[in-house]
Design goal:
This protein has seven helices and no strands. It is mainly α.
Length: 212
């Protein structure tokens, strides 16, 4: 019996069995290593593709940024046009040039329209509150100006309503200055300069006719 167990055949069988086990274990280790390698590669590819955005989405986002910048530049440009326009209008008023004053007043009302559209666009885009509230002040002033000066042709400047009118006027102009500064520091200083130009023209008109 002892001879049978330790016969060469049995020894050969045991060695083959051990070799088979080592082979299976080696294959299992290799399979595990391959699986781990695939997992790492998958994670790396996931990170790579996560950084790649859909070109269509990128184009939409770029157009949105350009649209926002265009709105800010438009509001900035109109703010300065309004300041210069009103300054000239006050000089015309002080010089008794009524016809020129009326034409400039109508041009101002036309300029208010794109400012209103900009405020609506900013609101629809979910932008910060100041991009809606600040230009809306100028729009409100334009509406008041349209009702009192154009539709009703009221001589309100000699009544108690003059002071609320003046408060709204300066809030509207300062709102445009604030918008310009928030859109860009250079924009802000340019608009502030034209605001002071308008202010000097207002004082000149007050000195001549008693009101701006």
């Amino acid at each position: 019996m002892f001879y049978i167990i330790h016969s060469p055949v049995c020894k050969y069988y045991v060695s083959v069995k051990n070799a088979y086990r080592r082979s299976v274990h080696g294959l299992a280790m290799r399979a595990t290593a391959v699986e781990q390698g695939v997992t790492v590669a998958s994670r790396q590819l996931g990170k790579l593709f996560a950084g790649i955005r859909d070109p269509a989405i990128l184009e939409i986002e770029m157009l949105s940024r350009l649209d926002i910048r265009t709105i800010d530049i438009t509001v900035f440009a109109i703010a300065n046009l309004v300041n210069v326009l009103l300054a000239v209008m006050f000089v015309c008023r002080a010089q008794g040039m009524g016809k020129a004053e009326q034409v400039l007043g109508l041009v101002f009302l036309v300029l208010v329209i794109p400012v209103a559209l900009a405020a609506i666009r900013n609101f629809a885009s979910g932008r910060d509150w100041w991009t809606v509230v600040l230009p809306t002040l100028l729009v409100l002033f334009g509406v008041v100006e349209l009702v009192l000066d154009v539709i009703l042709k009221s001589d309100f400047r000699v009544t108690r309503w003059l002071w609320p009118y003046i408060v709204l006027y300066y809030l509207a102009l300062l709102g445009m200055v604030g918008y310009s500064f928030l859109a860009g520091r250079t924009f802000g200083f340019i608009t502030l300069s034209t605001y002071f130009l308008n202010l000097f023209a207002t004082w000149y008109s007050y000195g001549k006719v008693g009101h701006g």
